[in-house]
Amino acid sequence: xxxxxxxxxxxxxxxxxxxxxxxxxxxxxxxxxxxxxxxxxxxxxxxxxxxxxxxxxxxxxxxxxxxxxxxxxxxxxxxxxxxxxxxxxxxxxxxxxxxxxxxxxxxxxxxxxxxxxxxxxxxxxxxxxxxxxxxxxxxxxxxxxxxxxxxxxxxxxxxxxxxxxxxxxxxxxxxxxxxxxxxxxxxxxxxxxxxxxxxxxxxxxxxxxxxxxxxxxxxxxxxxxxxxx
Amino acid sequence: xxxxxxxxxxxxxxxxxxxxxxxxxxxxxxxxxxxxxxxxxxxxxxxxxxxxxxxxxxxxxxxxxxxxxxxxxxxxxxxxxxxxxxxxxxxxxxxxxxxxxxxxxxxxxxxxxxxxxxxxxxxxxxxxxxxxxxxxxxxxxxxxxxxxxxxxxxxxxxxxxxxxxxxxxxxxxxxxxxxxxxxxxxxxxxxxxxxxxxxxxxxxxxxxxxxxxxxxxxxxxxxxxxxxx
DNA sequence: GCAAAAGTGTTGTAGTTACACCCATGC
DNA sequence: GCATGGGTGTAACTACAACACTTTTGC
Lengths: 229, 229
Prior knowledge:
Chain A is α+β, with helices and mostly antiparallel strands and 229 residues long. Helices cover 26% and strands 28% of the residues of chain A.
């Protein structure tokens, strides 16, 4: 290979995935008992080696598909972590990604098979290596995204109430949003479609279910908060 | 090495730098005639191989220092590019960075030695491989940053007029800013310090020079535009 | 009828835009 | 004295926060 004269050592290349989910009104992370040495059995993000003929995006998609069986998962690069000593097992450079998935949509069996667990952020145990840092940066990216556009399409179930959506935002930003103002804001964006069905479990009056409109229907998506939150 | 069983091929790891500068009231990029095959002599970003004992940030800093002689340059990860075929010379994964430097501050000799050239964005020739994409993503990141905080500290000379700063913003966002409103906004942030000296070259009245206050003096930095630009 | 969440309306304010207008000075 | 960019003032507008108020319905 013609670059060998410039680069004569081996660097392992991997991907790690910060997987966000929303379950029982809590924002959660999918974490795993690590399967290989070193640090086998410790809590970590799920990762995988990047194969020779793959891009890092392909690798992350493959890892996610292997675990959840899902295709077309939302996926975005967070950052590359490359301190030579970050992994005691070798000189591993890793590209961190974050993903959003619907918790109910994939089989729990597959997840249990991998020693995985959905854990809410405040209850998260310390993770191996620099994985805590990856979570932190992923969360920052998620917040940035959520302040630019209304997210939830990838996290919430098909039908949900405005209160569900507001609560998701409360979880993400760790702050309360005024119910009336939040409702008005969301509806003004015209990205939701009201169903003729109510969720009666949370109140006597019942709350209408909504679903996200198909992307093709949405002509123009406003930034969700025009002023910084 | 214990990971060899999982990862049995060689991936070259490099960094590429999108270097922004501001010269003669134009936002410019430092581009280079590529020194090695393939594509030797074609326009490209400056890059370098990541050494075994380096993080990618260290590598990018080293590359920048080698070219400009500057230390403590502003540097931020843009994104990792990893399509297996992106570089015809081998399977090279590259981490793109962007940097901001003061054009006048480093010797032009060094730059000429490397076949480098400052070129404004509209005049940029096509670059090799996926370097155009890197420039595009770097510019997006720069815009995002510039809308969150007042940049210019790393790009403008020590002393500058508000008009210089406004023009920098015009270049970055490719739109005009109202002179009065921009001035009021900038001054309200209290991050500038007015000098007792005027630039008489642009108008009869003359415009006061300003400089950025030391970071330690600035107690709290507001987001520069609270609404999206 | 009352509790409790869903949903609507109103008012105030800060951040911003648009634009009028004054200022200083070299020619 | 006037043209030119520098610099100030102001009125209108918008997004948003705060919060009062109405609605619905099971108990």
